[in-house]
Amino acid sequence: MSYDDVEIEDMEWNQELQAYTYPCPCGDLFQITKEDLKLGEEIARCPSCSLYITVIYNLEDFAGDSDQKMKKAVDPPKPIAVA
Amino acid sequence: MKRSELSRRKEYIRELAKSSQLHKNGGHVEKLYVHFWSCFEHNSICIFFFSDAGSLFTCGDGSFGQLGHGDYKSHCSPVKVAYFVDNHVEQIACGMRHSLVLSKGRSGDRVYAFGSGKRGQLGISKDKINKVNLPEVTCGLEGTKIASIAANGDHSAALSADGHLYTWGRGFPGNSDFHRPMYVPTLFRLTSTALGWNHALLLTGNGEALMLGGNHHGVLSNPDKLSSAKLLQDSKEGVLEDVPGLEGQKVVHIAAGAEHSALVTENGLVKTWGWGEHGQLGLGDTCDQTSPQTVNLCQDGPNEAAKIEVYCGSGFTIAIRTPTVLSGT
After folding, report:
1. What burial class does residue B3 get, using C-beta atoms within 10 Å of its C-beta: 0-12 exposed, 13-18 middle, 19+ buried?
2. Binary contact (A23, B314; C-beta < 8 A)
3. Is B15 helix (H, G, I), strand (E, B) or coil?
4. What is the pLDDT of residues A28-79, one digit of tens each?
5. pLDDT-derived band of residue B48, with 50, 70 and 90 as boundaries?
6. Which of B5, B227, B259 lies at the smallest CB-CB distance from A25?
7. Which residues pair with B115 in a beta bridge?
8. Is B52 helix (H, G, I), strand (E, B) or coil?
9. Contact across the interface for B223 and A1, Cβ inside 8 Å
10. Beta-carbon neighbour count of residue B324 at 10 Å?
């Protein structure tokens, strides 16, 4: 059972941890990475205890990123089979 | 929390809590005594000091404006809060991302709030407030003599001199958020209050302990109990309940951590309950408890008369035992 529901806007980006964080009642931080969010993951875990929170966010805000867009531009168009 | 992180913070707090410090303030050296301090630990510590003139100094994380300097900067050493230069600061309280100040002056008592206001914890407006970085007056308490203020998580509370409780901020389980102080009716006059992140403890003048949000207390490690507590939350209003299991013993002192509670009975027993995963209940295991259990303080030596106080933080508890001096000794 999730300890709390937290909106992504209320989480803080931690440069050292490279993750969005929110205080855990044990004194450590609930953490979730951008990669997790891109994959649609919504659980932010605490490294020090069993508690976790549900992160509320729009997948669209994280799903498409500049790397993917670049790759699409660079890849040659695939030949389309015509029956 | 990692052991090294905990000891680093303990050391930091020890340094700051030294009995007096000389602080250069615009060329005038002000002797700074730590009269009262409060902090919300985490990756940021926000510690308030008073000088003997009733000034307020803050330091730590300021990204929500909770240092009250008019910006969102963080500070590693105490900075005077200019706003209170003409007021006498009496008490301070820190929540997760907000701060409360009780000031006493000729125009009466005032509660000020600054920092994050998303859950109404500043109590400064009916409208949704994101954050403020300068002190603003909490509405609805003007004209009331305030005995004490409290804050933790996204909750705020004040106790009036005549023993009435006012709460604002995030609703306790079963209640919605309140953006302005709300009077919480109780049968008896209250003498103290302690806040957690999802509960509140109250102590009456008769030595009875009451709790708001008790259904959720001590069930964090049990997913079944937690989900049935949440169902109960949806079906009825949050209720003020007696703390169970005390069997008539009077309570003289209460304390609340983020998700656990502690009290001291008139017989000098320390009892704890709530979340126990980090050993914060001091009962020798990491189990949660839904009602107060006696802590064995392992007293060696004679059983002398002593005053016991207990304090709780996020995942830890401190008990201080002070032998009372016998007359004639």
Report:
1. exposed
2. yes
3. helix
4. 999 999 999 999 999 999 999 999 999 999 999 988 654 444 444 445 555 6
5. low
6. B259
7. B98, B132
8. coil
9. yes
10. 9
State the complex-level ipTM.
0.83
10 Å CB burial of residue B136 (0-12, 13-18, 19+) is middle
The tens digit of pLDDT for each residue in B165-196 reads 999 999 998 889 999 999 999 999 999 999 99
Find the mean pLDDT for residues B152-165: 97
From B61, which residue of chain A is nearest by alpha-carbon distance? Answer: A12
d(CA B13, CA B182): 34
Is B153:B119 a contact under the CB 8 Å cutoff? no
Query: B203, B255, B214, B273: which is closest to B238 by C-alpha?
Result: B214
Q: How far apart are CA B289 and CA B272, in angstroms?
A: 8
Cβ of residue B223 closer than 8 Å to a chain A Cβ: yes
* Sheet with B209-212, edge to edge strand ranges: B190-195, B200-204, B209-212, B240-242
- Find out whether B304 and B323 touch, Cβ atoms under 8 Å: yes
Q: Span A7-33, mean pLDDT?
A: 96
Which tokens in the block code for residue B28?
A: 């005038």
Euclidean distance between the first and final Cα of chain B, in Å? 44
Evaluate whether A30 touches A46 at the Cβ level (below 8 Å): yes
- Alpha carbon B264 to its chain centroid, in Å, reads 16
In chain B, whose CA is at the least distance from the CA of A1?
B223
A40/chain B closest Cα distance in angstroms: 23
pTM greater than 0.90? no
The chain B residue lying nearest A21, using CA atoms, is: B43
